Amino acid sequence: MAVNSASPNSHPTLAQLVNGLMSDATLLLHQELALAKHELYEEARKTKTAVASLGAGIGIAAIGGLLLIIMLVHLVRALTEWPLWICYGMIGGICAIAGVALIYRGKQYISQIDIVPQQTVETMKENVRWFRKKTALRKI
Q: How confident is the model at residue 3 (pLDDT cuts 50, 70, 90)?
């Protein structure tokens, strides 16, 4: 029969405190990594769905837009009796200007995308503060 030499009122040893601190830090790190992985997975899933929908929509809209542009060129030709090459040039220039404007707008939207998982960053900062506070208290 083993006899417990530590009394119930005794304080934990330094090794026990360090071991507990390391255990807590390891558990916290694993939880933070799991949270980051989950956040990244969710964002990747949303991105995949959005890209597939956008790709299909862009493809179909491009075909429809091309046909409408050809129709518009021939409409201008019928109304003005200008040479066909002038009608294509005029409509092509208008489309080029509109395309540049849309590209500029898209670049502005892309610059606002934040790929860093903000919730994980905030909880990591909080954990660092907690860890520093706990280690400072242990030194006292």
A: very low
- Helix, strand or coil, per DSSP, at residue 140: coil
> What is the helix (H) or strand (E) element at residue 99, kind and residue range?
helix 84-111
Q: Read off the pLDDT of residues 41-100 as tens digits, 9 standing for 90 and up.
A: 888 888 898 899 999 999 999 999 999 999 999 999 999 999 999 999 999 999 999 999
Could you tell me if 12 and 133 are in contact, meaning their C-beta atoms sit under 8 angstroms apart?
no
Asked if residues 127 and 36 have their Cβ atoms less than 8 Å apart, the reply is no
Coil/strand/helix, residue 114: coil
Predicted local confidence at residue 19, as pLDDT? 87
Domains of the chain, residue spans:
14-110+120-139
Inter-CA distances, 27 with 18, 72, 133, Å: 14, 65, 17
> For residue 21, what are the contacts with CB-CB under 8 A and spacing of at least 6?
134, 135, 138
Q: Average model confidence (pLDDT) for the chain?
A: 86
Q: Which amino acid is at 53?
A: S
Which are the contacts of 77, defined by CB distance < 8 A and separation ≥ 6? Answer: 84, 87
* Cα–Cα dist 103/92, whole Å: 16
